[in-house]
Amino acid sequence: MSDNQADPEIHDENKLIAERRAKLDAIREQRNAYPNDFRRTAEAGHLQQEYGGSTKEELASADKHYAVAGRLIRNRGAFLLIQDGSDQIQLYVDRKGLDADTLARIKSWDLGDIVGARGSIQKSGKGDLYINMEEARLLTKALRPLPDKYHGLADQEMRYRQRYVDLIVNEQSRKVFRTRSKIIAFIRNYMMDRGFMEVETPMMQVIPGGATARPFVTHHNALDQDMYLRVAPELYLKRLTVGGFERVFEINRSFRNEGLSTRHNPEFTMLEYYWAYAAFEDAMDLTEDMLRKLALDVLGTTTVTYQGNSYDFSRPFARLSVFDSILHYNAGMRAEQLADEAGAREIARGLGIALKDSWGLGKVQIEIFEKTVEHLLDQPTFITRYPTEVSPLSRRNDDDPFVTDRFEFFVGGRELANGFSELNDPEDQAERFLAQVAEKDAGDDEAMHFDADYIRALEYGLPPTVGEGIGIDRLVMFLTDSPSIRDVLLFPHMRPE
């Protein structure tokens, strides 16, 4: 006995597929099995919107005729339910009005088939709209049966692997991706309305830069050289600012060769923008305004509910430095100890943090912050003044060069954005690149490369500039109440079946 025969569900599915193939073969003997000459004149959503409020009598006297098409998702005998990209609508099988050949074809339809129908729009006694079929066409034969209508596609992994089936049977999934599209459209329009120009920069780069992350490596055959999928578009966008485009943005795909989790996917989408003659405070103001208006536009409210908790975007977002946030969320910790490298290392060891000898005070403080603070940043919060040691592209603060004019935005205990006043001193930038190279040589796979062309660009002069990256996938998770990043990616990365 084969494995398929041993599993009753697989055996039943194979039997159904065989039956459907037999029907397809019979259709092929008579006509084109995949016609493309049926043209619909209305979508289900349009009809529901226009006639949903009409009475049965009004529609009967109006005698309005439409052609509709969609996937057959339910068979109720005299009434069939189809679904198109906008909504659902019923088809009525008038056994007295339709000829025998048409009735036989309709009877051979299976759930999942894509069909077309033409007839008058009517309303049933229960108040449901339907098309009283005068013409019925099979447009595409579905060879595989849809999942059980009551249980849907319950297996989470199968939902991700077979997203096409998930979208057919799960309205919530369709809603999430419609919302994602709306979020991206809002962000694009928001930036353009404020004078930012949308641009495109290379996805394959000779030197990966713009973030500390392990890159994906590929090979360019014509140039006979290794190239990297970008970890961020930052350095190219700043080259454009050097060139005179003073407000630029890119809704970009970036790639980081890192682990998979509910919050991480190796391929992800960001908004990244650069704004000349502005500082990190301006970027925080823009971010706060954009996210508040985005929530209102997408959800109709500035109160966002995520995983049972409410987040208020109507109030001013909290702003707190890295150093002050550590003291705020760690009662009894002394500022003098945290500000001293030996003292900070003692604190970190007490928290069970594994330290490297090469780390300075700034890196140790960030490790303490990530261990004790990050997950507690629930309501919308900007964390500012990141140590220079962990901010290789950020401008040093004028009053305290130990820290930079940088911020990260957190909500629900997770980071959604990172921005800073840009380092535009080419000599300082070259020194920091060299420090990154030393870390890479010491075994840090995420450290940056030395980008000589970017240094050359800075030598032509980058105006005072602020830049920011906002993680769109995590933002969509938050605004759609989705617990995993895979829920908001149409085709998330998966291990092979």
UniProtKB/TrEMBL annotation:
Its cofactor is Mg(2+). It is found in: Cytoplasm. Coiled coil: none annotated. Residues 177-496 form the Aminoacyl-transfer RNA synthetases class-II family profile domain. Binds 3 Mg(2+) ions per subunit. GO terms for molecular function: ATP binding; lysine-tRNA ligase activity; magnesium ion binding; protein homodimerization activity; tRNA binding. GO terms for biological process: lysyl-tRNA aminoacylation. InterPro entries: Aa-tRNA-synt_II (IPR004364), aa-tRNA-synth_II (IPR006195), aa-tRNA-synth_II/BPL/LPL (IPR045864), Lys-tRNA-ligase_II (IPR002313), Lys-tRNA-ligase_II_N (IPR044136), Lys-tRNA-synth_II_C (IPR018149), NA-bd_OB-fold (IPR012340), NA-bd_OB_tRNA (IPR004365). Mg(2+) 2 binds at residue 415. Its EC number is 6.1.1.6. HAMAP family: Lys_tRNA_synth_class2. Belongs to the class-II aminoacyl-tRNA synthetase family. This is Lysine--tRNA ligase. It comes from Pseudohalioglobus lutimaris.
